Amino acid sequence: MADKEATVFIIDLGASMKAVHGARKESDLDWSMSYVWDKICNVVASNRKTLCVGVVGLRTDETNHTLAEDGYDNISILQPLGPMSMSSLKSLQTKIKPSKTTQGDAISAIVIAVDMIDTYTKKNKWKRQIYLITDGQGEIDPDDISDIARKIKDSNIELTVLGVDFDAPDYGYKEEDKPSVKKQNEATLKELVDGCGEDARFASIVEAIDDMNEPRAKSVKPYKTYDGPLTLGDPKNAPAVVEIRVERYFKTHLARPVTASTVVVKEEQAGPSQAADDEQMDGVELTAVKQTRTYKVNDPDAPGGKRDVEFESLAKGYEYGRTAVHISESDHNITKLQTQKSFKIIGFIPKEKYEPLLNLGESCVTIAAKYDERSELAFSSLVWALSELDSYAVARLVTKDEKDPIMVLLMPYMEPNYVCLYDVPLPFAEDVRSYQFPPLDRVVTVSGQTITKHRLLPSDELNQAMSDYVDAMDISNYGIDQDGEPAEYATIDEIYNPAIHRINHAIKQRAVYPEKPVPEIPPVLLRFAAPPTELVETIQATIDSLIKAADVKKVPPKAKGKRQRETVKPISGLDVDALLGGEKKGSISPENAIPDFKRALNSSEEVEQIADATKQMGAIVQSLITDSFGDNKYAQAMESIGVMREELANLEEPGQYNDFVRDLKKNLLSGTLGGDRRDFWFKMRWAKLGLINQSQSEASTVTLEEADEFYKSR
Amino acid sequence: MLEPPPASSSKKVDRDSPLQAALKCAHHLMEQRIISNPKDMMGILLFGTEKTKFRDDKDGRGGLGYPNCYLFTDLDVPAADDVKALRALVEDEEDEEEVLKPATDVVSMSNVLFCANQIFTTKAANFGSRRLFIVTDNDDPHASDKAARSAAAVRAKDLYDLGITIDLFPIARGESNFDLGKFYDDIVYRDVNAEANGTEVRTSKSGDGLSLLNSLISNINSKQSPKRALFHIPFEIAPGLRITVKGYNVVSRQAPARTCYIWLDGEKAQIATGETTRVAEDSARTVEKQEIKKAYKFGGEYVYFTPEEQKQIRDYGPPVIRIIGFKNRNMIPAWASVKKSTFIFPSEEDYIGSSRVFSALWQKLLDSDKIGIAWCVLRSNSQPVLAAVIPSREQSDEASGTPYLSAGLWISPLPAADDLRDISAERGLDCSEDLKTKMRVIVQQLNLPKGVYNPLKYPNPALQWHYKILQTLALDEEVPDKPEDLTEPKNKAINKRAGGYLEDWAETLKDEADRAARSRSLKREVEDDEISERPAKQRKAAADRPSGSTFSMAQLKAAVESEGLSKMTVAQLKDVAGAKGLSTSGRKADLVERIEQWVEENS
C-alpha cells in the first residue's frame, strides 16, 4: 500500500497576485494556480482516501481559521485537510480569486498549515507536505523563524516554497528591478527553508511549472509472480540437481490508459416544476450503464427461429468445431491440465541464436531468495556461468498449482546492486504460424529460375545509398546524458506512452476548465514521433541520394484496385476465354452467376452488352433474396452485389450500378422481395454497398452527400 | 473473415497408401484446424468414386449433376460427427459403405471443379478466403480428350473468378514424376500477391525416411498463408521516402476457447447465444445505443468529452511506421519486451519500388547488426508506440535462430517508462570462481538441439490437453489418463550428460554455503553486540529481525506451541507465509491459521 499523504497548499491571494508580469498573458495567480491545479487534479484522479489535501488562502479579505491569536489575520482555510473529490475541487475553484487586501503574513499561514497537519495526522505514519505559493509582496514578520523551522522539522513536514518570479540562479532566472520588500521576503523565506532540513525546497515557480509538463510514470509496487524452486534435473530421482529458491517479479508490465466508462444522461427524476428553474443545466448528470445478458437458442417453431432461455437452465461447456460439448458441474476441471508449481530449466542456447522478435510479452526478473546462502551462491554461479558463456536458459514455468505452463527464456544480467535473470515468454508450437513469404534477396520465377537482378530487388547503388543512410541516421550516440556527454538517444526511460499521458492531461484540463476546448497534445509526448530535426538537416544530402536511388513511385489513387484489362491466365498461359464459343458469352446462369458475369463484362464491346449483363445479374440477385428462407441466401446475394459494384465501377459504368441499387433498395424496403427484407438492407448499409459516388468513380454523377443520404433515408 | 477450407479430394483406385495418406492428412488437418482456427469451415469431396453423393437437398439435383463425386463432408465448421466419420473411413479397412470403391468410368474434371464451385458458392458465399486443395496422383486425367481438358480449364477459370484459390498437392507414383504440364498448369493460377515470386508446386512422395503422410502434411502446412493482413500502411524509412508494407500476425499466443453456455433441454444440445442489453444503473431502464456516451471517472464524478473530442484525443495522425533512427542491436536490453512482435512485408500496391527499398534496408540491418527505432501508429485511432524494427534471417541461413520463420522485418514494441517496474533487490552472496567454472561445464553440456529454441518442438501442453479431452468427450471416447507433455525437461538425458558434473557442483556448493552461513551468523552476532551497546535503537531493530525467511522450522514450531504467532505483526506473518510459499492474503487470524496448519503438515 502506498503511503498516506497530507498536503496543505498555502496560496497567496493578495491583490498583487492579480497583476500580469513578464511576457505572460495570465495573471500571476492564474499562472501559479496552473501548477496547484495540476497537483490537486492528480490527487482527485487517484481517487484515494489516503491522499489528503488542504488549502489555505493567504492575504484574503476575511479571516477564517482555528488559531485565535494576534498576527493571524487575513488568512482563511479554504479547504480543510481531507480527501479531495470533484465537487470539493469545484467549490474550491470559486474561492480562488485575488482579494482586495495586501495584509497577511506568509509565516503565520505556515504555522496554521502545520497546525492543520498536526491535528489531522496525529502521530501516525504520514508523508506531510506544505506548499507555499506567493509573490512575496506581503509583509512577513521574520521573528521566530528558527522556532518555526524547528517545529516543521519535528513534525516531519516537507516545506516547499514556490515564488512567483523569485530569483533562481541555477535555473538562470533573475528578476530585474525587484522591489525591496520582495527581495527581503525572498531572503526570509530562504532562511526558513534552509532551517527546515534536507527535504525542504525553495524555488521559483517557473521551475515547478516547467517540470509539471514532463510526464511522470506512475510507480507500482513490485509484484511477485513466482516464489519457489528453480531446478535443473529431477530432484526426486537424480542424485544431484540444481535447486535454487528464487523469487520472480514483473520487470515490465504494460501500463494502459484510463478507460472511459459507458454512461447515459440521467433521466429527469423530479417533476416538470423543478426542471424549469434548474440551475445545473451546464453540468450534465450522468449515470453508469450496466450490461445484462439474455440467452437465445434456435427453435424452428418459435417466431423468428429463436427463443429465449433461462440462464439458470444453461450448462457450461465448450465448442468443438460446431459441436457443443457439455461438461457437467462435477468435472468442470476435466479439460484443465493438472500442474504443480515449478520452474524447470530444460536446456541452454547460445545468445546469438535467439531472436528477440520471438518475445511474446512482458518480461520478469528472477532473483535468489533472501537470507538463503545456498540459493544465493547457487544462483550466482548460474548467472555467472550463463554470462561468461554468452548463453541463455530455456525453462518451463508454472507460477502456481493448476496454472498453465509457459516457456520462458532466462537471460543473465549483472548490476552492481544485484545479479538476476531476466525472462521473456516464448511461443509454443501453436503460437507460431508458419506462413511462407517469398525471399527478399532473390526472385524465383514461375519456371523455377532464381534471379538476383530484378525490379523487386535493390541495385548495388540502392544498397550503398541505404547503407550510407542507416549509418548516418545512427542515434546510438545522438543523445546527451546528464553530464553533457554523448549518450543513447531515446532510451526507454525517456519514452512515455503518449496515450496514457495525453488522456490524463486532457481529463485534468477538462476537470479544472470545463469550458475550454480539448488541449493540444503536449509536445513532449511527440518528441519521438519523428527523427531529430537537426540530424535530418545535417544528413539531407544522404537522404536525397537514397531517395534518388530508391526511385519509388506512388501509384495514382485511381489506378489502385483497378483491374487490369489484360486477361488472367493459368500457369500454362492458356487463353481460357478463347476456349468458349461466342454463343455462350453474355448469358448468365444463376448457378455460376459471378464467373459468368465477369466473363460477360470482359468480352463486352458495347455498353448495351454491359447493360444486359447487369440486368441479368440484377434479376439473379433479386430472386436470391426473394427465395431466401430467413437469411440463408443473403451471403450469396451480398457477394454478387459486391462483385457488381466493383466491376461496374472499374468499367466506369457506375450509373448502371447506381440504377440497380436504387431499384433494389426500393424493393427491399417496400417488401416486394418475399416479405420484410429490411434486415438485408441493413447488411448492405453495413457493407457499404450503396451508390458509387464521385470520389469512388469519376464517371459517377452521385455526390458524396447524395451517397450518404442514400444510406440514411428509409 | 473466415477461411473456408480446404476441400480435400483424392483419386486412387486400389486401396493403397496415397489415398490412405490423403485421408489421414485430411483427418489430421481437421483435428488441427478445430484447435487452431475454430471458426474455419472445411469439407471433403472425393472424386472418381463409383458412388455418387451430393447434398440431399430439395432441389432434386441430388448427386446427379456430379457423377462420381462423393461429398463426404459438406463444407461447414466441422462437427464432432464429421471427425468421427472421417476417422472411421481412415481406420475402417473394410470400407463397408464402399465409399472408396473406384469408378470404372473416367471422372470429368470439369464436373469435379464445378461441384466444388457449387459447394463454395452456396455454403461459403462472400467469404474472404476460399481455397480448394486438390490431392491426386493422376497427372493426366483427360489424356485423350481435348474437349474435356478445355472444359476443366473453363471451370477452373470460374473458380478463379470467384476468388477461390486452387492448391495442388500432387503425389508421385513410384519412379514417375508428376508432370504438371500435362493438365494442371491449365487449372492452377499464380498467386497474384506473390508478385513475380512464383508459387512452387511441391510433389509429395514417400521415401527418404519420410512417409508420404508426413510429406503431404508438410507440403500442406507450407501452403499456410495469412488470410489477410493486419494492416497495410506507409513505412517512412527516411523523411520523404515512403513505401508500403503489410503487417501479419505470425507469432501470437493461442489460448483455449472460452467456455460457452449450452442448452440441454432440447433434443440436441445447443449453444445458447448471448445478447447484451444495456440498462442505466440508476433507473434500470433499457438504454438505446444512440444515448450511450463515454466519460472518465474522476474524483467520484464523470468528466465527459463529446465523441468528436474523444476522437481528437485519440488522434495521432494517419497510420504510419516512421523510422526515427537506427541503433546497434545490442543497445536494446534483453528485457525490453511488452508485447508480441508483428511481421511486416513490402507491398507494391501503393508505391512501386517498395520491395527493393525494403530489401535494401533488411540487408543493411542484418549486415551491420542494427535495428531501426520507429514511431508506429499501426491503425487509425490506435495508440502510438515506439518500436524496434528487427530483421529476421532467411530460413536457409545457417546463422538463423528462427529457421521456421520467413525473412522480413518485425515491429517489436518497446516498453515505455510507464511500463517499467522497480526491482527491489539486494546483491546476494557471490560464489567462488570454482563454482562458476563447475556450472559452466553443466551449461555447456546441456545445450538444446542445434542450439536453438524451436517452438515447433514444444506444443502447448495445456492447450493440447484441453482439446484432447474435448475431443474425447465429443466423440465419446475413453479419456486418456496422462497427457503427453514435451515441455518437461528430459531429466534422463540431463542426468546422463551432466549427472557427474552436477554432483561435483553440488558438493562444492554445499561447502561454500556452509562457510557462508557460518560467517553470516558470526556477523549477525557481532551486530547484535553492537546493538546492545545502543539500547535506544534495539527495540526497533529487534522487531525488524525475525524476517519470515529466517525463521527455521524449529523456531516456527516453538512459536506455534507457545502461541507466539499471534504476538507477531501482520507484516511479519505475511513474510513467514510468503517464505513458505503460502498465500499472504486475508486477516491476521487467517494468516496464523494458515501458518499453523503448514507447520503441522510439514513438521
Automatic annotation (TrEMBL), chain A:
Gene3D superfamilies in alphabetical order: 1.10.1600.10, 2.40.290.10, Ku, C-terminal domain, von Willebrand factor, type A domain
Subcellular location: Chromosome, Telomere; Nucleus
Any GO molecular function: telomeric DNA binding
Reactions that this protein is recorded to catalyse: ATP + H2O = ADP + phosphate + H(+)
Record domain VWFA: where: 6-220
InterPro entries assigned: DNA_bd_Ku70/Ku80 (IPR006164), Ku80 (IPR024193), Ku_C_sf (IPR036494), Ku_N (IPR005161), Ku_PK_bind (IPR014893), SPOC-like_C_dom_sf (IPR016194), VWF_A (IPR002035), vWFA_dom_sf (IPR036465)
Enzyme class: hydrolase
Enzyme Commission number(s): 3.6.4.12
GO cellular component annotations of the record: chromosome, telomeric region; Ku70:Ku80 complex
Main location: nucleus
DNA repair keyword on record: yes
Keywords: ATP-binding, Chromosome, DNA damage, DNA recombination, DNA repair, DNA-binding, Helicase, Hydrolase, Nucleotide-binding, Nucleus, Telomere
GO biological process, one term: DNA recombination
The UniProt record lists the keyword GTP-binding: no
PANTHER family linked to this entry: KU AUTOANTIGEN DNA HELICASE, X-RAY REPAIR CROSS-COMPLEMENTING PROTEIN 5
Family per record: Belongs to the ku80 family.
Function summary: Single-stranded DNA-dependent ATP-dependent helicase. Involved in non-homologous end joining (NHEJ) DNA double strand break repair. DNA-binding is sequence-independent but has a high affinity to nicks in double-stranded DNA and to the ends of duplex DNA. Binds to naturally occurring chromosomal ends, and therefore provides chromosomal end protection. Required also for telomere recombination to repair telomeric ends in the absence of telomerase. KU70, of the KU70/KU80 heterodimer, binds to the stem loop of TLC1, the RNA component of telomerase. Involved in telomere maintenance.
Name of protein: ATP-dependent DNA helicase II subunit 2
Automatic annotation (TrEMBL), chain B:
Compartments, record wording: Chromosome, Telomere; Nucleus
Top-rank lineage group of the source organism: Eukaryota
SMART domains: Ku78, SAP
GO CC list: chromosome, telomeric region; Ku70:Ku80 complex
GO MF annotation, one: damaged DNA binding
Classification via Pfam families: Ku (PF02735), Ku_C (PF03730), Ku_N (PF03731), SAP (PF02037)
One Gene Ontology biological process: DNA recombination
Basic and acidic residues biased stretches: 514-536
Keywords: ATP-binding, Chromosome, DNA damage, DNA recombination, DNA repair, DNA-binding, Helicase, Hydrolase, Nucleotide-binding, Nucleus, Telomere
Reactions performed catalytically: ATP + H2O = ADP + phosphate + H(+)
Residue ranges of every copy of the SAP domain listed in the record: 565-599
PROSITE patterns according to UniProt: SAP
InterPro entries assigned: DNA_bd_Ku70/Ku80, Ku70, Ku70_bridge/pillars_dom_sf, KU70_core_dom, Ku_C, Ku_N, SAP_dom, SAP_dom_sf
EC number: 3.6.4.12
Major localization class: nucleus
Disordered: annotated segments: 514-550
Keyword DNA repair: yes
UniProt function note: Single-stranded DNA-dependent ATP-dependent helicase. Involved in non-homologous end joining (NHEJ) DNA double strand break repair. DNA-binding is sequence-independent but has a high affinity to nicks in double-stranded DNA and to the ends of duplex DNA. Binds to naturally occurring chromosomal ends, and therefore provides chromosomal end protection. Required also for telomere recombination to repair telomeric ends in the absence of telomerase. KU70, of the KU70/KU80 heterodimer, binds to the stem loop of TLC1, the RNA component of telomerase. Involved in telomere maintenance.
NCBIfam families on file: ku70
Family per record: Belongs to the ku70 family.
Name of the molecule in the record: ATP-dependent DNA helicase II subunit 1
